[in-house]
Amino acid sequence: MRLLFSIFFVVLGSYGILGELPHTCSCIPGFLKAKLELSAPNAFKKFGISPTFLPVPPKDKLKSSFMTANVELGNFIDPLRTIDTKYISYPQGKSDVKYSLFLFDVDGQQGPPPNVYLIGLYVNVPNSKNLLIGGDIAVPFIPPVPGLGTGVHRLTGLLYEQNDHIDPDAMEFMKLIKTRVIQLEPMVKKYNLKPEPVAGTFYTTELKRCGDTKH
Fold this sequence. Notes:
This protein is α+β, with helices and mostly antiparallel strands. It has helices at about 1-10, 40-45, 170-180, 185-190, and strands spanning about 60, 65, 85-90, 100-105, 115-125, 135-140, 155-160, 180, 200-205.
């Protein structure tokens, strides 16, 4: 049932109207690479994610890639490259720990900070080469395509260590499938996660009309 929900959101396009896409630039040949220039704590502070939305930034970086672009702490990725996530991993992860993986947009339509818009939430995740598989889907993933004219978005992933098993079918998660709006600190406390994220990453993106090349 959760998979059907996810497919439904993909077809409708939760961030924008699919009818707008033909008016945007779609020429994105090749694989987009980026170099790591900042540490995770410095990048989260420089791009304003910490402390506004996240009091303490993660110490380590998550590795992440789409099919045609890799993610490197704030690099710009064309939204048409972000439909198909290839993997998210944490090479320094522990084999005897379960994790919660939050995927969210700090610039979505969620109200004032520190609210964020939840793109997906995975719980009881064992460490592996791809954290998107093997755990439980609490809130199904939806493609993070921003609406036309909504400016630059910071799409973020955070990994937390769990202290206890989390029920992925809890009523709270069923409500979040519709609302998608959370504050990180209360969620971390409610589900007894370690208070600070162990790793994180993010990239920036913006949906624009052809001819507008400024990022």
